[in-house]
Design goal:
Layout lengths: L2 E5 L4 H12 L3 E5 L20 E4 L6 H6 L1 H22 L3 E4 L23 H20 L3 E6 L1 E3 L8 H10 L6 E3 L5 E2 L1 E3 H13 L3 E5 L5 E2 H12 L5 E3 L16 H7 L7 H15 L1
Parallel strand pairs: 1-2, 1-3, 3-4, 4-5, 5-10, 6-9, 7-12
Antiparallel strand pairs: 8-11
Helix pairs in contact: 1-6, 3-4, 5-7, 5-9, 7-9
Amino acid sequence: MTKVLVTGSAGFIGGALARRLRLDGAEVAEFDLAQGDITREGALDQFDGITHCFHLAGKTFVPESWKHPQGFYQVNVMGTVNVLEFCRKRNIPLTYVASYLYGEPEYLPVDENHPVKSYNPYSHSKVMADNTCQFYARQFGLPVTIFRPFNAYGPGQSPLFIIPEIITKFIDPAIATVEVMDLRPKRDYIYIDDIISAFLRSMKKPGGIYNLGSGYSKSVSEIVSLVQKFTGIDKPVKARGNDRPNEIFDLYADISKAKRELGWEPVVSFEEGVERCVKKLTIDN
């Protein structure tokens, strides 16, 4: 029987992955803060019989990374080294989930050969962890797949993220005007089910670095229009006009490598994905 270890299983993506694996009949071992400290040497030695590992555990909140950078390097880099050592000693294939690492794009669409950049301690720690995974693959022959998702979204995501934030503001009767920072920026949004389907393919064909995205970008303004459509609620929308430092106004992924080598491509359209998010949040509220 397939026995899979998922670190970071309490998170949005990790939780969705664990549920899907169980639906597919796998035995799932979970490791998150409730189970211990990923940075402690030997923290994963309690797990036996693992046939594949997915590493998603990490610290993610960028503002906090400026206040307490050491914790981000400790968890995101040394925690990843612990996972790599666990897998190396047992020859367990690893799927590592990185993040968007490319900074301001030098060209579009962004492919896997684009230079990686970091603008804060969080992104720097993720670049270091990504590089360490590549080192283990080269020097130890460990089967490591690295996924670099662009903007993940879907039901159950934290309201700190833009899509659930906008939906929540529309369906909350106490909010008269929907305020956003800026209506212009465009991002490549990838639905959670499509991300998970890519992860599962890495179990059959481990190795390689892959972008995960839709291959096109959508603006905040377009998100607002879809939320208005699916909620049936028309509220005034106000952009605060606060430009973020190093703002990127258009960004989307080249996903041709994942299509070619994994036979993967997203199947949930952006419109359908936003509609599913609206339905879930409407029911929950």
